[in-house]
Amino acid sequence: MATLGNYFLDAATLSGATAVFTDATLTTAAPDGYYSDSTVVRQQSGGVLLLGAVSCPSCSSPCGTSISVTGVSAIYDINYNVGSDIGPAIIYFNAGAIPDGIRALYNSTYYNNLTSTVWGYLSSSQPTNFTYVGITASDCSIGTTLDGGGYTSVVEKNFNGSNFDTVGTSGTVTGTSADVVLTSTDPQWCTLYFPKTSPTPDNSLVQIFGPCPATGWDIEINCPAVLTGVPGRVLVGAVDCLLGDLPDTYFNVPNRGGTAGDPQLHEFLCLDEYAINRAPADTYVVEVGGVRKKLIVDANGVITLVSVC
Question: Where are the beta strands (DSSP E) in 1-147?
Fold first, then answer.
């Protein structure tokens, strides 16, 4: 995440500077890293700005952004403004056949739990790592590489609002083979979300890592919105799900093409409109449009079966 500070240049602008300094006399070089004046971003290494100025028209893209990528192995950073609305910020990600890793960072917390419209829950066992999805047959030894220490000298790219600029070549990615949850067929669109309960902070970061020589993926970054509740209750024993009151309320996080307020297979089911707390593993009955449905939910809060009562 960016850190604000006071720095000094040997030119009128960052674009024209040869280095960044921490003192007005320009004797102490600033630490190596990336520097931005909200107009451009440049990398300093060894006291010298090595990379050319990369345009930064708005250092974050607005939510509601859709991006399609065909490219090379790299870390792809998407800084975006999530706005002031509250509710879960839902991200739809389609890695396709070639495996890719994804995670989101919001308010200093990483999120990497996915649910596939085809396979259901897919996630790394470590909350801060990338979760890798794609087809098993296209695996490029991701788990072996991660268990062996990970990836170094990775190309780093940053989304500028329309394209990805290369901003470095020294990225690192670590993790374990437990981060890799590839499937025998294309997982297609996967859902990732994070709860947003306050107007601020309003910025987030999505990172996608393509570990294989080539990569291609699609992502849709939606603005937050509170979920729509449906009446329901836990189905106890052999009680007929057509009988009895429905005193509780449940909230589904819709998969791509789904509808909030109409729980479907492989969607997250939650206990609140912000999707902070997922429904515990159990069997539930809910009513949608006058029709009662039975839902089976697994330990990850994902619906594994939907049937009409």
Answer: 8-9, 20-21, 33-36, 40-45, 48-49, 54-55, 61-62, 65-72, 75-81, 89-94, 100-106, 109-111, 113-116, 120-123, 131-133
| pLDDT, tens only, 178-203 | 999 999 999 999 999 999 999 999 99
Q: Are 30 and 21 in contact (CB under 8 A)?
A: yes
- Please give the single-letter amino acid code of residue 49: L
DSSP label of 199: S
Assess contact for 52 and 193: CB atoms under 8 A.
Answer: no
DSSP assignment of 104-121 equals: EEETTEEE-EEEETTTEE
pTM of the model: 0.82
Joined tokens for residue 245: 């009151």
Neighbour-count burial for 262-301, b at 16+ CB within 10 Å, e otherwise: ebbbbbbbbbbbbbeebbeeeebbbebeeebbbbbbbeeb
Q: Cβ atoms within 10 A of the Cβ of 161, count?
A: 14
Cα–Cα distance, 145 to 149 (Å, whole number): 7
Q: Which two tokens stand for residue 105?
A: 């960072």
Looking at the domain that runs over 61-221, which CATH code has it been given? 2.60.120
Q: Where along the chain do the CATH 2.60.120 domains lie?
A: 61-221
